[in-house]
Amino acid sequence: MSKILALVDGSQYTQSVCDNAAWAADRLGAPVELMHIIGRRDTPSAPADLSGNLDLGERETLLKELADFDEQKGKLARKRGRLVLAEAGARLNEKGVSAVEERLRSGDVVDTLIEFEKDADLVIIGKRGEAADFAKLHLGSNLERVLRASTKPVLVAARAFRPIRRFIVAFDGGPSATKAIDHLVASPLLKGAACELVMVSSKPSDERLDRAAARLREAGYDVTATLEKGEPDEVIAAHVKRDDVDLIVMGAYGHSRIRNFLIGSTTSEIVRACLRPVLMFR
Fold first, then answer.
1. Which has the least CB within 10 A, 46, 90, 193, 268?
2. Where would I find the H helices in 106-206?
């Protein structure tokens, strides 16, 4: 059976990740696998070389103390990880999700994701991590790495969850955007929600937009398709704000700006500006 893989880190986004996972589990009829990854951000406490500063006895004593300290840090990280998972699992249970698996791992986030996402329908991650600076709205350091590495749809959760009643598809006709349309047609995840299909182009019309809209309508979506001029990031952001959409759907990155504007030089600006979750396809 396929699953929903939800990455939780104990940050302020963890509740939203859980709420999005509960919503997706209900829509897809899939179990949730909660994963907390103890990363490798901390370097070992032991210095590379103190031979010029300390005598042999002092060095050996210090190295032992630092080794004990690192061991204690590791134990505390594992205890904290188990607590994060337990609280996340309890929240999912409260939301009616009974099929929940909790998994604690150590290592690199991307390597672990690649290992465990193979049988997942959806990966969910918070927009910002536990180390984010909320005053400056810094994004999670692993977000772009996950988006570039994952071969599955990735739902980037906003700070607070809200039901998805209206969503916008940033469409440019490229492979990633086409993959998003394929997924929307085949998956029950967003069925029943109103859809805005927006393409930014200097041309007066585009057959790819018409075909995408037709496919979505045939799949049962209530679709509004528009072709607009301007800068893709500005056009999409304006639609999100004006129409109060609940979700942005788009390709993760590519050669054109409509697929690339959330990954690259304008990534942080757009994700910070749009207080909505983003469902991305690579």
1. 90
2. 109-116, 143-149, 175-186
